[in-house]
Specification:
The complex is a heterodimer of chains A (357) and B (282). Helices cover 26% and strands 38% of the residues of chain A. With 357 residues, chain A is of the alpha+beta class. A six-stranded mixed beta sheet of chain A has the order 7-8-9-3-10-11, with helices on both faces. Chain A has a five-stranded antiparallel beta sheet with strand order 2-1-4-5-6, covered by helices on one side. Chain B has 13 helices and no strands. Classes of the chains: A alpha+beta (357), B mainly alpha (282). Chains A and B meet through strand 7 and helix 2 of A and helix 8 and helix 9 of B.
Chain lengths: 357, 282
């Protein structure tokens, strides 16, 4: 079977990584998660820079690691290319020789390696950088050099560690769509480690969300964005997420309180709604069946054209929800941290879906 | 308030910004005076050497066969011992800098012993091992009829003994300061450990190796105690410049001064030349 199949179990002190991952050839998967979730550990384990405690790694039918059978192939025998977060271009070599390095190291003559490297630079649109030293190229260029260097060895699996985080906002926009194109042309299995949901959604066909060393959710970017299963994912995609026991069109929330939802459901469920669906009032609103809670403003921050307001003490007195309102509304309602406020959400705006666990 | 500056000089961006207020401009007498004494003490002897040297005899003394012989021997042996230091010291430094090496602290302490050891003691110690009746010297002599003492090889060994630690420490420091993740990057590109060492590690610590080699060379060039103890002082074979200077002081003090100036000039010239060569960064 072509592509990557991996079961990674790594223990480091009190942290335990336990992840099952599959990436088909030609597929781009993003490994998303907060800091400390184990993304880098997983990447290092796949590259062979870190030994597995248990599990196995198979790439295109070759066993790269299987501690139970005593197999641990060193990084240089794996055929796993890595684009490191800060690129790690060799400072003593020219851009051309950086890209030629892998071919030279695996036995090509200097001339052959350089010729092949020049083709890669051409393909990535940076042929003119060939004689430059890495320290003289920009962040976006360095990223492309690092990508060319990894691709030149024709790896079966390409790992990218936060490929865009070292770039400034404007370069990032350009490089992101370009990287997407190169990854699609790559043909092997590609795994992108990132904490940025936009990078993940643009670059990857499929997301795997890692939290506390475990996979908490997987699916296409659209699926994950529509139905977050953890608070982290909900924050990532900008949704309010509540959990509880559904009884018809009512969700009995874990933290206490009730939530009227848009569809019939029974059993453990998640409920999600957009911050823009939350309306704020200074007095209790009248009218239609709504979810109405009293709370206090926890904080405000600009978000796009609007303002994100965190309302604490709801629902049911514990959690908090995010509301998105216009700057004009903030002024009219005189919202400031500590202000009492009423929040309302239409039942029809609340998505409910089963708790997969 | 900081004292007003006379001219607004742009701050060099690579330097950390100085904190205003403390320490700018005025130097406390308690620190300034000893610092000045130290500086004078270090420089005055060199000035004395230059002032007292009988410059009119320069050509005669420096072109004398004994001086040229000693200079040549010194340059050859110091260079040979430096080359040996690099060949043996870089691998040792690499070993010491490896993360997770057990007993690294003890090994490092042992390596630094020759730094604090009086060179004469080093010479005696070498004699007990490599002398004609030494631990290794006896079987060597029995087998081959060759013995190290009183040969130029002994000079090289004596210099190696005192110079090697300088190189090891300099290279080990460079290896520790180097970003080892470059080695990981090389490995993921298919480079085996040997290739990684030659093509990534060594070039990255090149300046450190250069600095270590310069230190080792300077130390070897000035070696006296271990040399005279282990190699003796035979004109043409083991009498290096420092020994020549010392002997000349008894017979012809003026010549000794000139030879000393020559030795000083050679070391300074090499240090300056190599410093420019090695301080270059990428």
């Amino acid at each position: 079977m072509s592509g990557l199949r991996a079961e990674l179990a790594v223990r480091r002190g009190s942290f335990a990584l336990s992840v099952r991952l599959g990436v088909a050839a030609g597929e781009v998967v993003a490994l998303v998660g907060p800091n400390g979730a184990g993304k880098s550990t997983a990447l290092r384990a796949l590259a062979g820079l870190l030994a597995l405690d248990a599990g196995s790694i198979t790439l295109d039918g070759r066993v790269l690691a299987d501690p139970a059978a005593g197999v641990h192939r060193p990084p240089y025998e794996r055929g796993v290319g890595v684009v490191f977060q800060d690129h790690l271009l060799f400072p003593h070599l020219t851009v051309l020789d950086n890209v030629a390095f892998g071919l030279r190291a695996t036995g090509a003559t200097r001339a052959a390696a350089r010729a092949a490297a020049a083709v890669w630079l051409e393909r990535l649109g940076i042929a003119e950088l060939a004689p430059a030293r890495p320290r003289t190229v920009s962040g976006g260029q360095a990223q492309r050099v690092a990508l060319a260097r990894a691709l030149a060895t024709r790896p079966g699996l390409l790992l990218l560690d936060e490929p865009l985080s070292a770039l400034d906002a404007r370069t990032r926009l350009l490089v992101r769509s370009e990287l997407r194109r190169h990854l699609q042309e790559f043909g092997g299995a590609a795994l992108v480690v990132t904490h940025d949901p936009v990078d993940a959604a643009v670059l990857a066909d499929r997301l795997v969300v890692l939290e506390g060393g475990r996979v908490v959710q997987g699916g296409t970017p659209a699926e994950v964005a529509a139905r977050p299963r953890t608070d982290y994912v909900a924050r990532l995609v900008g949704l309010n997420l509540l959990r509880g026991e559904a009884e018809g069109r009512v969700l009995r929330l874990v933290g206490g309180g009730l939530l009227h939802v848009g569809a019939e459901h029974r059993g453990p469920a998640h409920a999600a709604f957009r911050p823009a669906s939350v309306s704020l009032f200074t007095a209790r609103p009248q009218g239609s069946p709504r979810n109405v809670w009293a709370g206090t403003v926890g904080g405000l921050e600009p978000h796009g054209d609007g303002v994100r307001v965190q309302v604490d003490g709801l629902p049911g007195g514990t959690g908090s929800v995010l509301a998105e309102v216009t700057p004009a509304a903030v002024a009219a309602l005189d919202l400031r941290p500590g202000s009492p406020v009423w929040a309302a959400v239409k039942a029809s705006d609340v998505q409910v879906y089963p708790d997969a666990g | 308030m900081p004292a007003p500056t006379r001219s607004a000089r742009p701050v060099t961006p690579t330097r950390p910004e100085r904190r205003a207020g403390a320490g700018q401009g005025r130097v406390p007498l308690l620190l300034g005076l000893p610092a000045l004494v130290a500086l004078v003490f270090l420089l005055l002897p060199l000035v004395g050497l230059l002032v007292r040297a009988p410059w009119s005899r320069t050509v005669e003394v420096l072109t004398s066969p004994t001086a040229l012989q000693a200079l040549r021997l010194s340059l050859v042996t110091a260079t040979a011992s430096t080359a040996l230091s690099v060949a043996l010291g870089v691998p040792l430094a690499w070993l010491l800098a490896r993360p997770g090496l057990r007993g690294a602290a003890l090994l490092r302490a042992l390596v630094t012993v020759p730094l604090v050891l009086p060179p004469v003691v080093g010479g005696v110690a070498l004699f007990t091992v490599l002398g004609r009746s030494g631990l290794l010297g006896r079987p060597l002599y029995a087998l081959t009829g060759f013995a190290f003492p009183f040969t130029p090889y002994a000079v090289v060994l004596a210099q190696l003994f005192v110079a090697l630690p300088y190189l090891v420490l300099a290279v080990e420091g460079a290896l520790r300061a180097a970003d080892r993740r470059y080695e990981e990057a090389a490995a993921t590109l298919g480079a085996r450990p040997g290739t990684v060492f030659w093509r990534v590690t060594l070039p990255l610590v090149g300046p450190g190796v250069g600095a270590g080699a310069v230190l080792a060379w300077a130390r070897a060039l000035g070696e006296f105690g271990a040399t005279i103890t282990f190699a003796g002082s035979f004109p043409g074979t083991t009498r290096t410049m420092p020994l020549e200077v010392y002997l000349a002081l008894e017979t012809d003090p003026d010549a000794a001064l000139l030879l000393a100036v020559l030795l000083l000039g050679v070391s300074v010239a090499v240090l300056v030349l190599l410093r420019d060569r090695w301080s270059g960064r990428w």
